[in-house]
Every structure is written in structure tokens, then in C-alpha cells.
């Protein structure tokens, strides 16, 4: 199987939590001014407001520069300028998907400023990072990942070209590549391999993208030069090259290897990607959330008990591993990759974005009595701040894939996909039936509607096309499904492994699905008496300010939790409370926790017989 994601304009979110979060993210993207976004690029080019920090204290807040960007974007920060690339990438995708004219206009203003920076710098250099940082890197002197920061500007320009067809963005990137290529070619291979051991971000992916866009052999040479032997060679030899290594230093490199394979067809790149997933996920396992890192590094294989703390699950790793799972699903069609994406969408992307402010939690703490630490709109600009704004523009294409034989509904989030298939245009609408209106007593005087919250994810998929056409549609059966799915449709359907398949024969076909689920406990494999509670793909958090133990059977969640506060007007809520405790603990979805203290893992002791 070789599937492809739909173009941004062909699929969009239509309702629900992910769309609300996307809209909040869009408003934030629009709130930032062009000059503030480009402030460090302008300063490096010598055309910024050099004295913005010297305004007298009696001036207005705006005149004193308090509306500027601070944190990692403060002039003088070693990673200054990194956020702009994330912003461009997010703005381009949002504008491409929704036709947002206001974001497109702001993006044009940013490109105007970058073009001026490049001109002032002599025609190539366009980065906020000074060239001297690359010299320091080459000399082995102290400097913090200049290629990482440079990559972000490249990434933003390339995504503007890819999503919006903007040739100016491509030309700025192509000219800037000349300066980096000249620098990289100045070293013999042995010395350059030492340089690659300092975080390069996604430079490898940049060269693959530019090779694809331009066909220039310069980029083929750079792909070979950026082969990171100390990471890739051990992976190809079947060795664990990841344990206790900084995770998000390596994931972007492997995403670059994936793109290199797609552009060149060279098998060595594909083998690196497949071996990376083998060691990062298959042979390592995950926390109950789907995340794996602690303190930004890969945990030892299946060893999570000692790694729960305040700095588990860095958001950058969540986003980039979702991207990697997407790549591998498109290559091999394994639904396990879709399960991985689902867990990280709900317990990563949603759980690490504040539902009201839209800001990011750099980490998702999994210690007892944890609290999420939220960023701010203009005072932090952590690396995860950047991946957050990108991530929430890229959920919709994860929901529906196409290949030569079928359309696949991969994630159950409300979307509309409009596909140009061989048989003509096909529209797929995916909706969730998660609200339940009271309908009054039934004909026999009994209660109407449902008595209690349904124990199933209920989905409706509608497919529309011209009369007389034929399209095969596949619907993923989630791994957490606890019984046989209930399928209601007039179309002929079959089950093929982890998918329900039906033939759409033109006109309109509607399929109603129910995927049964039950509350389950998920133990830490190296501490089986300690469990988390999960319903469907949703991890629950107990609202408690410390680690506490529960009494009951760790394999039977009904001895530990009971349904609680399940109904609000026409909406069913996911709520539980402990049983058998003098002081009860209430549980809500981890992705709804904002400023409350919480615990995800609970030691369970056997109940004492009376």
C-alpha cells in the first residue's frame, strides 16, 4: 500500500474540540505583528529598531517595547528567530486549508520583510542567526544549535511554497541555501560528521524538499553530506541508538531521512526510518498517553516507572512522532500507526494546549500531584510553542487518506474531505454523535433517549459522488474497541482485519458506526501494580495534589472507579470518581485539565477483606 494525505484545501475540520482548538490557534497566529515576528531577522540585517530596548521608562508600554517578543525570541538569545519559521508554516497551512485572507496578507508582509533582510545581507543570508554562530560551531566553541534555528526559517519558507505555491518563498530559500552549502563544503567528511553531532534540526529534510522543488544537484550533494553516521549507521546495524539520547535532536533527522527516501527512492533512507520506529516505539513502548520521553530524552525500553516526573512528554516529540507515524502509515498501511496518532492527538496535542488561552505546556508531567506549566503569548517562545502552532493546523489531513484503490477514514474527528478520484469528485463527511438530546417518553410511557452515557464511540460517515460511480471506502476499527463494532448501513460491507470496508456505488451512502469501549487500566510494565485509567483513546486524570494509592483489583477498574457527573444538558461527559475511599477523587480527561493538580498513575493495593 502507498497512501497519500489529501491536499490542505481538500479536507478541513468542521466541528468539535479539534476545530475549536484550531480556531483558537488561528486567532493567536493572527494576533502577532509582522515586525515582531521578524524582529531578530531585521536586527541581524541591521535594519531593525536597534534602540527599541532603550526607550525611557516613562514612555508607553508599546514605546518601551513591551509588545515585543521575549523568552527564546529575545535579541541575544542563541535560538532567536526560530519561532518565525513555525509561524510561517502554520499560517501557510491555515491559509491554504481555509482561504484565510487575513493570515495570507500577514504572511505576505512577513515575506516582504525577509526579502529585504536577504537583500541587505548581500543576497543570500536571511536568518536571525549570525554567521559567526556557524563559525563557533565549526571551531568547537560554545554555541547552542545554530543549524536548528536556521532550519526553522528554511522550513517556513518551504511550507509557504508547498502549501500556497508562493515562488518568492522558494527563491528566498534557494538563495539562502547557497550560504549554508558553501559553509558545509568547507570541511572534510570526518570533521563534518563531528559537526552533525550538534543538533541540526530538520536540515536534512530541507535539502530533500529543495531537491524536490528545484531539481538542483546541489541538494543531492547536501543529502549525502548530512548523512548522520553516528545515528544512522547503528540503526542500520540493528542497534539501540536511542536510549538516554535527546529525542527531538534525532526525530527531525529521521523525518529528513523519510523525505530523502520519498524524493530519491534510495532504500538506505527508508531502512533508517523503519529501524528508528522499531527502536523508538516497538521495542521501547510508551506511557499510557502515547508519549515516551522524560527530560527530553528517550527512556530505556519498557522502563517508565522511574521516569515519571515534571518533564515527561515534551510537546515537540509528540508532534514530530505523529509526523513520523503518518509517514509510515502512508508507506505500509499498518493501522498501528493510526492508533499511535490517535493516542497522541488526544493525550498530547489537546492535553498540552490550554483550551482557553491556546498556549502550550512544554511538558506533560506524569508525577503524582503534577501541574501543567503554560506558556504565554509573547514572553516564552519555547521550541514547543512553535510545534504547537504548527500541530493545530495539521490535524485534518490525518483523518482521511487516499490511495489508488480506496479512501480510508483513519481518525474519527469531524471533517469534510473532497477528493478528486478516478471516478470523479467524492465527498466524505465524518461526524461524531456525542450529544444526546432528550426525546421524551417512548410510546409505552418509558423513558426516552438513553438512560446512561453510551459505552461506545458513535460515528456517522457519509459519502457522496455522482450516480453510477464506484468507490471503495475503508473505516479504521480502533485498537481499543472492546467488542464487535456495530455497523448500520444499506451498503454492502465486510470486515478486513482492522478495517470495515464498503463499496460506495454513487449517490449518497451513509454508515453509522458504534465502536464499543470500556474503562480499562493500563499498567506501567515495569511496575504492574501501578495503573492509569483510559477510556477509548482518552487518558483520565485524577484531580489530587499528590500521589495516592487506591484499593481494589488493578485489572478490574470497576473496583476502583464509578461513573460520575455524566450528563450536562444534551451533552454526555467523561467523568469518574473513586469508590471505597473516605475522601473521593474525581477523574476527568487529561486533555481537559488546565490549572488543577492531577495524577495519572495510581498504585493499587489489594482490598482488605472485612
From TrEMBL:
Stored SUPFAM superfamilies: Six-hairpin glycosidases
The processes (GO biological process) annotated in the record are: carbohydrate metabolic process
Per its UniProt entry, which superkingdom is the organism in? Answer: Bacteria
- Where is each Non-reducing end beta-L-arabinofuranosidase-like GH127 catalytic domain found? 11-395
Q: Which Pfam families match?
A: Beta-AFase-like_GH127_cat
PANTHER family recorded: PROLINE-TRNA LIGASE (DUF1680)
Question: Would you tell me the protein name for this molecule?
Answer: DUF1680 family protein
What organism does the record attribute this protein to?
A: Microbacterium natoriense
Amino acid at each position: 500500500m502507498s497512501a497519500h494525505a489529501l491536499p490542505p484545501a481538500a479536507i478541513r475540520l468542521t466541528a468539535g474540540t479539534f476545530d475549536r482548538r484550531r480556531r483558537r490557534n488561528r486567532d493567536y497566529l493572527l494576533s502577532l505583528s509582522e515586525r515582531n515576528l521578524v524582529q531578530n531577522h531585521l536586527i541581524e540585517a541591521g535594519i531593525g529598531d536597534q534602540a527599541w530596548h532603550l526607550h525611557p521608562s516613562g514612555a508607553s508600554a508599546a514605546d518601551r517595547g513591551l509588545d515585543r517578543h521575549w523568552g527564546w525570541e529575545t535579541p541575544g538569545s542563541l535560538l532567536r528567530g526560530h519561532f518565525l519559521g513555525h509561524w510561517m508554516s502554520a499560517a501557510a497551512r491555515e491559509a491554504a486549508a481555509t482561504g484565510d485572507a487575513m493570515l495570507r496578507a500577514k504572511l505576505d508582509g512577513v515575506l516582504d520583510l525577509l526579502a529585504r533582510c536577504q537583500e541587505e545581507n548581500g543576497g543570500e543570508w536571511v536568518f536571525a542567526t549570525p554567521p559567526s554562530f556557524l563559525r563557533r560551531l565549526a571551531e568547537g566553541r560554545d554555541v547552542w544549535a545554530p543549524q536548528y534555528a536556521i532550519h526553522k526559517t528554511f522550513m517556513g519558507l518551504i511550507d509557504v511554497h508547498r502549501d500556497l505555491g508562493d515562488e518568492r518563498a522558494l527563491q528566498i530559500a534557494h538563495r539562502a541555501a547557497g550560504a549554508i552549502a558553501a559553509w558545509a563544503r568547507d570541511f572534510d567528511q570526518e570533521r563534518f560528521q563531528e559537526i552533525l553531532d550538534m543538533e541540526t534540526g530538520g536540515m536534512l529534510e530541507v535539502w530533500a524538499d529543495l531537491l524536490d522543488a528545484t531539481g538542483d544537484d546541489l541538494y543531492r550533494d547536501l543529502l549525502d553530506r548530512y548523512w548522520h553516521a553516528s545515528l544512522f549507521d547503528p540503526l542500520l546495524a540493528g542497534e539501540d541508538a536511542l536510549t538516554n539520547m535527546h529525542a527531538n535532536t534525532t526525530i527531525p533527522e529521521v523525518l529528513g531521512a523519510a523525505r530523502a527516501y520519498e524524493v530519491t527512492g534510495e532504500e538506505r533512507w527508508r531502512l533508517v526510518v523503519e529501524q528508528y520506529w522499531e527502536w523508538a516505539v516497538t521495542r521501547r513502548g510508551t506511557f499510557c498517553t502515547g508519549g515516551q520521553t522524560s527530560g527530553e530524552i528517550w527512556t530505556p525500553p519498557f522502563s517508565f516507572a522511574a521516569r515519571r516526573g515534571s518533564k515527561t512528554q515534551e510537546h515537540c516529540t509528540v508532534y514530530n512522532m505523529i509526523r513520523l507515524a503518518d509517514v509510515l502509515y502512508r508507506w505500509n498501511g499498518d493501522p498501528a500507526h493510526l492508533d499511535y496518532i490517535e493516542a497522541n492527538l488526544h493525550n498530547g496535542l489537546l492535553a498540552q494546549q490550554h483550551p482557553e488561552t491556546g498556549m502550550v505546556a512544554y511538558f506533560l508531567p506524569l508525577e503524582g500531584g503534577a501541574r501543567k506549566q503554560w506558556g504565554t503569548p509573547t514572553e516564552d517562545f519555547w521550541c514547543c510553542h512553535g510545534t504547537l502552532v504548527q500541530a493545530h493546523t495539521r490535524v485534518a489531513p490525518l483523518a482521511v487518506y487516499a490511495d489508488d484503490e480506496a479512501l480510508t477514514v483513519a481518525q474519527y474527528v469531524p471533517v469534510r474531505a473532497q477528493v478528486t478520484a478516478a471516478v470523479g469528485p467524492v465527498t466524505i463527511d465524518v461526524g461524531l454523535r456525542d450529544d444526546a438530546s432528550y426525546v421524551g417518553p417512548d410510546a409505552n410511557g418509558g423513558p426516552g433517549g438513553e438512560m446512561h452515557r453510551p459505552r461506545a464511540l458513535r460515528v456517522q460517515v457519509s459519502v457522496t459522488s455522482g450516480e453510477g460511480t464506484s468507490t471503495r471506502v475503508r473505516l479504521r476499527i480502533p485498537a481499543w474497541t472492546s467488542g464487535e463494532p456495530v455497523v448500520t448501513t444499506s451498503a454492502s460491507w465486510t470486515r478486513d482485519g482492522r478495517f470495515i470496508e464498503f463499496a460506495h456505488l454513487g449517490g449518497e451512502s451513509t454508515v453509522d458506526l458504534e465502536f464499543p469501549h470500556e474503562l480499562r487500566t493500563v499498567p506501567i510494565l515495569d511496575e504492574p501494580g501501578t495503573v492509569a485509567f483510559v477510556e477509548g483513546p482518552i487518558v483520565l486524570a485524577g484531580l489530587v495534589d499528590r500521589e495516592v494509592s487506591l484499593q481494589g483489583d488493578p485489572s478490574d477498574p470497576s473496583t476502583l472507579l464509578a461513573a460520575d457527573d455524566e450528563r450536562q444538558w444534551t451533552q454526555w461527559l467523561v467523568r469518574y470518581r473513586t469508590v471505597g475511599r473516605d475522601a473521593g477523587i474525581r477523574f476527568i480527561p487529561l486533555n481537559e485539565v488546565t490549572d488543577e493538580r492531577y495524577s495519572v498513575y495510581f498504585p493499587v493495593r489489594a482490598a482488605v477483606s472485612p
